[in-house]
Amino acid sequence: MLFNYDISLVLLAIIIACLAFYVSFWLCKAGARKKHNCWPLFSGPTMGCGIWVLHYMVMQAHHHSHIINYNIKITLASLIVAIIGCSLGFGCFLFKRLRKNHYILPALIFSATAASMHYLGMAAILNAGDWYVSNAYIALSLIVIFITSLGMLRLTHLMLVMTSKNDIYANFCRLGATVTLCIGVAIMHFLGTSKMNMAPMGSSPLAMSHDDHIENTLAMTMTILIALVFMLAIFIWFINFKEHLSNELLKRELISKNLQLKQMTQHDSLTQLPNRLYLQNHLNTLFDKQLQPLFIMFIDLDGFKRVNDVWGHAIGDELLVKISKKLRNVVGNGGFVARIGGDEFIIVVCEQTKEAAIQLANRLLSRISDSYELSATTIDFLSASIGISIYPEHGHDVATLLKKADVAMYYIKDKGKNNVIFYDEVTMVLPT
Ligand SMILES: Nc1nc2c(ncn2[C@@H]2O[C@H](COP(=O)(O)OP(=O)(O)OP(=O)(O)O)[C@@H](O)[C@H]2O)c(=O)[nH]1
After folding, report:
1. What is the distance in A from the centroid of ligand 1 to the CA of 381?
2. 22, 170, 216 from 175: Cα distances, Å
3. Which helix (H) or strand (E) holds 80?
4. What span, in angstroms and rounded, lies between the C-alpha atoms of 402 and 394?
5. 219: pLDDT confidence band, cut at 50, 70 and 90?
6. What is the CA radius of gyration of the chain?
7. Model confidence pLDDT, tens digit, residues 11-62
8. Which of 155, 198, 337, 429 could crosslink 177 through cysteines, CB 3.0-4.6 Å?
9. Cα–Cα dist 323/432, whole Å
10. Does 362 score more than 90 pLDDT?
């Protein structure tokens, strides 16, 4: 049967019809967004045009022994039937109470529309000769179009209830509804025309009374409709592209704002060093990785208050920033530096031995006591006290290890400052 057709023209007809159906389902879904709530009104006409164009293009693709002439009034009436019928079908389907769990009425409207359009279209052929269609074929074509309409409506319903998160699934449903409808209309068409047996041109007296302008009107109407479908498809693609672009921009903005927020909540605003929260997370990560031994060095500057009191807070801030950079430089990439309070810093390093840790602490003390060129003065009297606790020797949790390093730091401050000491549970007393 297919060999009676110009396959390339049939394929073109199917592509155009699928495009129209896809666009009509898209318009239907676009109505779910408040700003596009009148768009579903265009779903019915677009689908109607698709069915109509499919029918007439496939008719043209039929290798008739002669040129088919149409009654232009009936032909255009079939277009109007398709547009009105599909609009009614969509209206009925989108009317929420009717849509709830059953699609019988809208499916009946869609299948009656497709069938009336098809058989009206057949009746519009002037020189059809002695073609006939058996009642069984008509009944079969009606059953097919009704079942495919039900399938199409089910998929459209699924597409409508998908949230924007499930855009890919919604697209699958839209494609599924498109293909289902196209298959239904195509099967109905081939069943309806399978017994067509055209009389040669001129055998019908009516055919003689119509001149070329009928063909031209039909071709023109079809061209306009196809152009409209394409324009609508391009417009929709453009809108989708614009939305995709603005979503992408929003997404990037959100990511950068999140990063900013993370930076703000986990870093000290003056020195940009990690803060106490970051330190806790970092230590827990190191514990999980089973890195040991870890040396937790609690550093408190000696005599820092004097800088604030004599030169003011701004100079104190300037000094804190310089010291932070210095600590980072001495520790390098192998260690972690955090600022947890006014002039208090924590350094976490993983060293092989206590001696290596003491060496690093002494290097830190020597660099902290360098002189500092600040905007209003030069500071050359600064020193620091460092208390060290060891993981896992002194504890297995962040709070205990920080507490013990703090106790060790205060111990050495009491003993004369500018020195470093490990926590020792015999000589040092933990506050209760
Ligand atoms: N400039 C500045 N000062 C701060 C900041 N945060 C806390 N401070 C001050 O830092 C000082 C820290 O106090 P202390 O550690 O008791 O002062 P100190 O002179 O180092 O005393 P010792 O540790 O006993 O040697 C206080 O004067 C706080 O007001 C800050 O962000 N900027």
Report:
1. 15
2. 7, 9, 33
3. helix 72-94
4. 10
5. low
6. 41
7. 988 998 999 999 898 888 876 665 666 777 888 999 999 998 888 888 877 7
8. 155
9. 33
10. yes
What is the 279 CA–ligand 1 centroid distance (Å)? 20
In terms of C-beta density within 10 A (0-12 exposed, 13-18 middle, 19 or more buried), how is residue 348 classed? Answer: buried
For the CA of 302, the nearest atom of ligand 1: 25
CA dihedral 301, 306, 307, 313 (to 10 degrees): 100
Q: In CATH terms, is domain 276-422 a member of 3.30.70.270?
A: yes
Rounded CA gap, 401 and 392, in Å?
A: 9
One DSSP character per residue, 89-155 reads HHHHHHSHHHHSS--HHHHHHHHHHHHHHHHHHHHTBTT--S----HHHHHHHHHHHHHHHHHHHHH
CA atoms of 89 and 256, how far apart (whole Å): 47
Residue closest to 44 by CA, chosen among 92, 105, 108? 92
Separation CA 45–CA 38 (nearest Å) = 13
CA gap 302, 299 in Å, rounded: 9
> What's this model's pTM, rounded to 2 decimal places?
0.55
Give the ligand 1 atom nearest the CA of 344. Answer: 15
Q: What is the pLDDT of residue 205?
A: 45
Distance CA 10, CA 16 (A): 10
How many degrees, rounded to 5, is the angle at CA 336 between CA 394 and CA 294? 25
| 301 C-alpha to ligand 1 centroid (Å) | 8
265 alpha carbon, distance to own chain's centre: 27
Strands of 344-350's sheet, edge to edge?
Answer: 336-341, 344-350, 294-302, 383-391, 420-422
Tell me, what's the ipTM?
Answer: 0.97
**Residues of CATH 3.30.70.270 domain(s) within the chain?**
276-422
CA dist., res. 198 & res. 204, Å (int): 10
Lookup: tokens for 47: 């689908």
Nearest to 383 by CA among 353, 350, 349, 417: 417
HSE, CB side, 13 Å, CA atoms: give it for residue 152.
Answer: 32
**Atom number of ligand 1 nearest to Cα 308:** 1
Q: Ligand 1: does its nearest atom lie under 6 Å from the Cβ of 317?
A: yes
pLDDT in tens, 79-124: 899 999 999 998 888 876 555 567 888 999 999 999 898 888 888 8
pLDDT for residue 68 is more than 90: no
- Of residues 224, 246, 278, the one with CA closest to residue 52: 224
